[in-house]
Amino acid sequence: MIICLTGNDASGKATQSKILTDRLGAILFSFPSYETTAGKAILSNLKENWYVTNGWGETDSGGDPYIRKDLRTNALVLQSLMNTNRIERTADLKAAAARGHVVLDRFEIDALVYGALDGLEPAWLEGINAQLPVKPDLYILIDVPVDEGFKRRPQRRDRYERDVKRMEDVRVAYLKLFTQRQDEYMASVILPKRPCKTCGGGMSGTINPDTGKSYMNCCSDCGGIDKLLAHISQDKMPRWRVVDGTGTIEEVSARVREAVGL
What we know:
By secondary structure, this protein is α/β, with parallel strands linked by helices. The chain has helices at about 15-25, 35-45, 70-90, 90-100, 110-115, 120-130, 145-150, 160, 165-185, 250-260, and strands at about 1-5, 25-30, 55, 65-70, 100-105, 140-145, 190-195, 200-205, 215-220, 225, 240-245. The strands form four sheets. It has a five-stranded parallel beta sheet, sandwiched between helices.
């Protein structure tokens, strides 16, 4: 199983990712992966060591010209680097998943939040990340109020983390996205009817939203038991969980374990 933990900065996701990794005997990957070529460029941009510009501007007072930042193109370049960063680690991710459980501290879901808030089209963000060859089976959002996050870590490391208003917007966007994905999953829980193998009567089925596996079902006409086919697409849908990140590390860890099903 591949499990992705995400959330706002200072939500405790890094700590909980490590705890869950130890609990499962899994392999942990953190994103962005700053040690790669793309990762180093990402970190430099977040620290504002470089930025995409669109030329020089002139001050009204006749002073020295200033560099105009191209915010949208910078966001486009940054998300392209983020996606490249995930691709850089694909071989390692596949190898780790083949050996057992994998825990991700952030992954492609974060692009849908941060990229959209930077003004990029959600459909484009969905499209480029949909092509990733590795996807999580379970997404867990560790939700913590922004003011609590700043109490935990007053010193912020990059331009995103220092912006309180933006962090509020990020939290709202995460909760909205996870609610939408949970609703999409639940909407596909009820499966269409198909013929009973015993009597040919109608037979409806359901998917267990906690395990993603199909139930055994009884035909209403003859009472015969039949199993839904394994190829049903809902069996392969990722699950989405929101975990309250307030409280002690142990309390949050217990909620994460419950979300995983441990």
